[in-house]
């Protein structure tokens, strides 16, 4: 029993060490049903700048993208090119809890 507990403890420590090295978060966000021409915009709050060039929204109902780092906030917006206004916006953040 003692060997089993030691083995489990070592495994848990190893998993905890590797958990921080799994990789960067990949986000998939649901977007509302819209018609017309729209752009997906992602704001990086920490950098105080747009994360990437705006991308045309393909009206698939969702949008997937790779976040560049943990522990930061990002705002995802859907820009209506015809109205010249945002029709959707949401803040997301991914944080490693220790």
SSE arrangement, N to C: HEEEEEEE
Structural class: alpha+beta
How many helices? The count is 1
What portion of residues belong to β-strands?
35-45%
Oligomer: single chain
How does the overall form come out from the CA principal axes?
elongated
Q: Which residues form runs of ≥5 with pLDDT under 50?
A: none
Helix content: 10-25%
**Rg:** 19 Å
Q: How many β-strand runs?
A: 7
- The average pLDDT is 84
Major beta sheet summary: 5 strands, antiparallel
Distance between the termini: 28 Å
Overview of the molecule:
This protein is α+β, with helices and mostly antiparallel strands and 98 residues long. The chain is 18% helix and 41% strand. It is built from one helix and seven strands, in the order H-E-E-E-E-E-E-E. It has one helix at 2-19; strands spanning 26-30, 38-44, 49-50, 55-56, 62-66, 72-80, 85-94. Strands 2, 3, 4, 6 and 7 form a five-stranded antiparallel sheet that branches. Strands 1-5 form a two-stranded antiparallel ribbon. It is elongated and about 70 Å long.
